[in-house]
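Hi V.,

You were right to ask for the full record rather than a summary. Here it is.
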Amino acid sequence: MILKRRASVSSNPAVPVDAVQPVSVWLVIAAWTVPALLTTFETMMFSRSEGRPISLWRAFLGGASGWYVWAACTPLIARLARRFPLRLALYKPVSRPTRWRFIAIHVGAFVLVHLAASVVWATAATWVRPVRFAVALGNWFIAALPFAVLVYAAVVSIFYSLVDRAQLRVRERDAARLAQQLSEAQLASLRMQLRPHFLFNSLNAIMALVRDHDTGRAIHALSLLSDVLRATVNAGDAHETTLAAEVDFVTRYLRIEQVRFNERLQVRIDVADDLRDAKVPVFILQPFVENSLKHGVLQGRGANEIAISSHADATMLTLEVRDDGRGLSHAGTNGAGVGISNARRRLERMYGPEAALDVANAASAPGVVVRIRIPLNRSA
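Predicted structure:
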């Protein structure tokens, strides 16, 4: 029976031992000083109405002393509420003996605390005014019994409210930690999708050079690919890099394509020197460059250009990838590729609603313009 009883209690979520931070002793004393002062005021007014006024310090001693017994017993009441939770006894499906045992423990604790406070009050009353101790004790214990029940219940309820607040903070902290871990896992997954994607494209470009027996350009492309691979390895698990490093990475990637297509592909980089230390997501430009190559620039036989630029205001950084290809009417749906889809999700995960991604046809010329807006942060 003992084992079953213990199992029944432990199967329900009791109040955690460390859920509530220790409350300052001075805060407890200050809280109980409020009813102590009210009782002092009541004692003075009652004595004055009877025509036997007493001094403030005597009224305080006679009326407030018992409240500080409650203050001294507050940690004990909280410990009992934690060890034998009334919420578990009243609202959870525990065995009847366990339920009544918890209630009996709290009833016994209430009687002892109320009796101790009544003794102190009665002792002070006999010193403040001529009254017998037994009479004063009976008056304090019996007359104040209903109110004392409310006081005990208030102490237990306040403790449980502190527990609930502490548990809420723990849940919010755990939820934030899990959300961060989920976001990082999703970002890692997106990056793993991205890396093979452009690496395979680069390898295909080099294979085309090998098939054409263009050994010199193939070797040069392999050297560039080696630099690109080194950049991906050095990036590690970082989610952000500098704009300078990102532009350098994309430039090397484009040089691989330039080895293959020669003068058919022109590249223009326009990044202000004062923005080169701005933080941007790792590999954020590459999918848009790849999209321009796949759907715009390299669809025709003439020369085409890809331009990468940046500008900023006080709080936001704007990155642009522009091509002069045939535009979205021939490229398919807006941002449907895996690279652009991944970039959209990455920006949402990293910056929330502050980030923006627009993919549209150029206003005054053929081609597509991709604009990325993110908060402007500079590396330390």
